[in-house]
Write a structure and sequence with these properties.
341 residues, alpha/beta, Rossmann fold, 2 domains, nine-stranded mixed β-sheet, globular, hydrolase
Length: 341
C-alpha cells in the first residue's frame, strides 16, 4: 500500500472503518486503471481493427436514424482531422440573421463516446431553426482522427476554433451536451470569436463537481476487459435507469468505451469567477435527476455566475435529457436564440 494512503488511514479514527475500506478500494482501483490504460501512444486510438469495425457498425446503424446530411466535411486542424456534418434547415429560421441574409447555424457538440448519432432525436427539430452542424469530438470515438497530442484546455479550444473557422459562417450558436457542454464553455473562455450564443445541456465540470458515487461507478466501465454488462449498467445509471440493451446509440457508446483509448487531459472544473467572465448569452439546461452533479446546486451556480444566463431546470430528467425531452429542448433553444439576436 502506498505511503500516502497509509498516512491518510493512520489519521482516521477507528470508527471510520467504512471510510478506510472506501479509500483502500479507491486507491487500488486507481492503480488498476493506470496499469490497464497505460500505453506509449500519445493520441487517442483503437485497441484493434476488430474493435474499430465493431464501433463503425454500431455508428452506421445509429446514424441511420438521422436525416441525410447535406454535406460531410473533414476539417484539417493542427491536432487532427475533424468530422463535421451539415444538416440543411427545414424551416424559416428565427429571424436571427448572419451576414448575407442567412440565419446563424447551430453547432452541436456531443457527450463522451457518443459522437453525432446521439443527436438523432434533436436534429430534425433543431433544423427548423437553422442549418445544423454536428461535430465528432477530436480525441473521442467517432469519425474524427486525432494525430497530435492534446495536452491542455487551451489546445482543446484551439482545435475547435480552427474547425469553426473553416466552416462557411462567421458565427454559430453552440449547443453542447455533457462533456460537449464543457467543450463549448472552454472554447468561449479561450477563443470566443465565432460564438453568437451558447446552450449547455447538463454539462459536466461546469457548474458543479461530479459526485464521488458516480466517479466510483464509472471505474469498472472504464476497464475494457470487464463484461459488456458493466458498461451497460453504468450507461443505464446515467440515463435514469432506462434499459440500454439493443439500443443502437447505446451499443455505439459501449463499443467506443471498450475499444477506444482516450488520450485527453482531464477537463478543468470551471470556476464561478471564470464563468462570470462570459460575455455572451448562455442557456443552461440542467436535468433534475442527473447523476453527474447536484442539479439544484448546479442551477444555483449558473444563475449566480452567468452575466447573461438563462437557466432551466428540467423536472424528472436524467443526464440523457436530450433524448427524453427533445421537443421541450428544441422549443427552449428556439426561444432563447430568438430573444438574443
Amino acid at each position: 500500500m502506498g505511503t500516502w494512503l497509509k498516512s491518510v488511514l493512520a489519521r482516521l479514527r477507528p470508527r471510520s472503518r467504512r471510510m478506510r475500506v472506501l479509500l483502500v478500494l479507491l486507491g487500488l482501483s486507481a492503480l488498476v486503471v493506470v496499469f490497464v490504460m497505460r500505453t506509449p501512444a500519445p493520441v487517442g486510438h483503437w485497441d484493434s481493427a476488430e474493435g474499430q469495425d465493431r464501433f463503425l457498425r454500431s455508428y452506421t446503424e445509429a446514424f441511420a436514424a438521422l436525416p441525410a446530411p447535406a454535406d460531410t466535411i473533414d476539417v484539417r486542424t493542427d491536432f487532427g482531422i475533424v468530422r463535421v456534418y451539415r444538416f440543411a434547415s427545414t424551416g424559416a429560421g428565427t429571424g436571427d440573421e448572419a451576414a448575407g441574409g442567412r440565419t446563424v447555424p447551430l453547432v452541436l457538440l456531443p457527450g463522451r463516446a457518443s459522437a453525432t448519432p446521439v443527436w438523432a432525436d434533436n436534429v430534425p427539430l433543431l433544423s427548423t431553426i437553422s442549418d445544423v452542424y454536428t461535430i465528432d469530438l477530436l480525441g473521442e470515438p467517432g469519425m474524427s482522427v486525432q494525430d497530435r497530442p492534446i495536452e491542455s484546455d487551451e489546445e482543446q479550444a484551439e482545435w475547435l476554433h480552427q474547425t469553426l473557422r473553416a466552416l462557411p459562417s462567421d458565427e454559430f450558436h453552440l449547443v453542447g451536451l455533457s462533456i460537449g457542454g464543457w467543450t463549448a464553455v472552454n472554447l468561449a473562455l479561450h477563443r470566443p470569436d465565432h460564438i453568437a450564443s451558447m446552450t449547455v445541456i447538463d454539462p459536466v465540470y461546469v457548474f458543479a463537481d461530479m459526485p464521488l458515487g458516480t466517479i466510483v461507478r464509472s471505474i469498472p466501465a472504464a476497464l475494457p476487459w470487464l463484461p459488456k454488462s458493466w458498461r451497460d449498467s453504468f450507461n443505464s445509471y446515467t440515463a435514469g435507469g432506462a434499459p440500454v440493451e439493443d439500443e443502437p446509440v447505446a451499443e455505439m457508446i459501449e463499443a467506443g468505451m471498450q475499444h477506444y483509448q482516450l488520450r485527453l487531459p482531464q477537463p478543468t472544473r470551471i470556476s464561478e469567477e471564470r464563468l462570470s467572465r462570459l460575455d455572451l448569452p448562455v442557456l443552461a439546461i440542467i436535468a433534475e435527476e442527473s447523476v453527474m452533479h447536484d442539479a439544484r446546486s448546479a442551477a444555483e451556480t449558473a444563475r449566480r455566475s452567468l452575466q447573461r444566463g438563462t437557466v432551466r431546470l428540467y423536472p424528472g430528467a436524467s443526464h440523457a435529457v436530450n433524448g427524453e425531452q427533445p421537443e421541450q429542448l428544441a422549443a427552449d433553444i428556439a426561444d432563447f436564440i430568438a430573444s438574443h439576436p
